[in-house]
Amino acid sequence: MDPVRRNGSSPLADRVRAEFGTVDALFVNAGINGFAPFESTSESLFDQLLAVNAKGPYFTVQKLAPLMSDGSGVVLTTSVANVLGLPTLSAYAATKAAVRSMTRSLARELLPRKIRVNAVSPGPIDSGILAKSMPAEAAEQTRAQMAADNPMLRMGTPAEVAKAVVFLAFDATYTTGAELTVDGGGSQL
């Protein structure tokens, strides 16, 4: 996450301005998960999820938008969890739903500059995040269950998400405020 300094400046925006001058596309892929039952979700976990998953993207876009070229694209990362009602992910889902709402609002606010703002909504992606957030055996069991529950009987890959991001950032020139789901049909079928 790019912390915003007390004077309102941003180390990331300062570096981008110095090295590149402008931004043609911005992909904000912030996210940590927080598997925890509702009853045992701590306030500190909720605050951490909110800070990384929602506050971080909001202020990243805010600080980099002045550097964006007119007609450029922003892509934020949500999750299918924001629409599915998954157990043990209520706090995580709430933060990703916030990003979904943020996508729509920022799309309206940046429209005068013809900056498109969209979201990519990944489903189960084999990105390694499970191994970082739980014991190895639990991660493998969760991964196997996610693949078995998916209509395509597998998890997606980071490369498949990247293709959707590139489409939204560059090719989807008549699309703004949208959320493109990349989940093997899991949220639709």
TrEMBL record:
InterPro entries the UniProt entry points to: NAD(P)-bd_dom_sf (IPR036291), Sc_DH/Rdtase_CS (IPR020904), SDR_fam (IPR002347)
An annotated Gene Ontology molecular function: oxidoreductase activity, acting on the CH-OH group of donors, NAD or NADP as acceptor
Organism: Micromonospora wenchangensis
Domain of life of the source: Bacteria
UniProt family annotation: Belongs to the short-chain dehydrogenases/reductases (SDR) family.
Name of this protein: Short-chain dehydrogenase
Keyword terms, alphabetized: Oxidoreductase
